[in-house]
Amino acid sequence: MRRILGIMDIVYGPEFPGLSQASGLYQELGNIVKGIAVTILFLMTLTAIHAQHKAPVSIHEEARIALSHYPQLRDTPITFKFKKSIRKSVMLAQPDFWSLFRPRKKRKYKVLINKEVRISDKSFTTREIPKDVLIGWLGHELGHIMDYKGRSSLNLLWFGFRYKFSGSYLKIAERAADAYAVTNGMEDYIIRTKEFILNHAKIGEPYKNRIRKYYLSPTEILLLVEERDQEGKSDGL
Length: 237
Hints:
Elements: H1 2-12, H2 19-44, E1 46-50, E2 53-56, H3 60-68, E3 78-83, E4 91-95, E5 109-114, E6 116-119, E7 122-125, H4 131-149, H5 153-165, H6 167-183, H7 187-198, H8 205-214, H9 218-236
Parallel strand pairs: 2-3, 3-5
Antiparallel strand pairs: 1-2, 4-5, 6-7
């Protein structure tokens, strides 16, 4: 490029911007392009929360807060990552497939997150979802991982089959994930997530009915909190 600019400078003389000026513009344009690329990579790059946990920069803080409620998962490898599309789900927690062939304690997990959260006919980016709501969503998925940790690899494969094809089992699994989150002190976040969905004017009734059917209701969550607190008092006696 510099050789071409030098030849143009000789041929066209003073009318041509010259090697130094054109080269400067070229360098400035290159810096702009580099800046844009670095910004995109920064937002999508996975950063470490703890030694075993990684999440995109754009949701790093929300993932850190959700994980702070699960000290049992501190040494469990978990990666949060964006995915272009997840059918029928906003997020999806699952074991890493190849780690199913390893001992249970060495199993790895991932939480997949739709790049664009689409609920009914309404689309949201992660920036448009309130922070507490996003934390609640992540906390629910970590509840699934708590459930997975106690299962054998063969049981997990059977779990996935029933989860996909059995509505009654889907209900059991989703309510169990909510229960794990409540047990770990995330009830406020879980309730805010449900209220965001159930009270949002632009979210259609089919999705709201799905939430009502398969997940714990705010009232049921409060009852679980009472039971948890009562057990805590009994243990303290």
